[in-house]
Design a protein that fits this description.
It holds the Pfam family Cytochrome_CBB3. InterPro entries: Cyt_c-like_dom, Cyt_c-like_dom_sf. This is Mono/diheme cytochrome c family protein. The protein is mainly α. It has a domain of 88 residues: Cytochrome c-like domain (Cytochrome Bc1 Complex, Chain D, domain 2), CATH 1.10.760. The protein has six helices and no strands. Bound molecules: heme C. Heme C (HEC) binds next to helix 3, helix 4 and helix 5.
């Protein structure tokens, strides 16, 4: 009995240590929408260089060309996005951006993404 209790305590300690080592506390404090963006979208819409030959990541590069500098190439810096716009593109896709199924990004996650990407839109009343 005593032995089991010790094992259980040791196991709990191990799990706690493993969890601390794996997760970065700063990232976990970020809003859900930002964490989802970093996970699903930043590979194309983030900063930094893209595949060999591309100056930027494909989403960032395509939007730089599309708006010719009139809007930020980075989605995370846009001030004109609404949750509806984000939902439209996420569910329908565009160009090399494939649509996301509800099994990949469910409606609650999509809402969080939309909230985060439209957080700087002055036309949206903050509740
Ligand atoms: C495989 C790369 C890729 C991924 C992953 C990706 N996108 Fe895109 N996305 C693009 C490209 C490329 C465009 C621009 C297409 C065009 O109009 O030329 C785009 C366009 C968009 C647009 C339209 C912006 C505008 O003003 O036209 C939105 C909104 C968007 N993406 C949101 C997202 C979100 C949110 C995610 C993550 C859930 C995501 N994208 C993931 C490549 C990607």
């Amino acid at each position: 009995m005593m032995r089991h209790a010790l094992c259980a305590a040791a196991l709990a300690g191990f799990i706690a240590c493993a969890a601390t080592a794996a997760g970065k506390p700063a990232d976990q404090a970020a809003p859900l929408g930002k964490r989802l963006f970093d996970y699903h979208c930043a590979s194309c819409h983030g900063t930094g260089i893209g595949n060999p030959g591309a100056a930027m990541k494909p989403g960032t590069d395509a939007l730089r060309v599309k708006y010719g500098g009139e809007l930020p190439a980075l989605l995370s810096e846009r001030t004109d996005l609404t949750p509806e716009t984000v939902a439209y593109f996420v569910r329908n896709g565009v160009s090399v951006m494939a649509p996301y199924r509800k099994t990949e990004i469910d409606d609650a996650q999509l809402a969080a993404l939309g909230t985060w990407l439209s957080r700087n839109n002055p036309d949206l009343k903050r509740r």
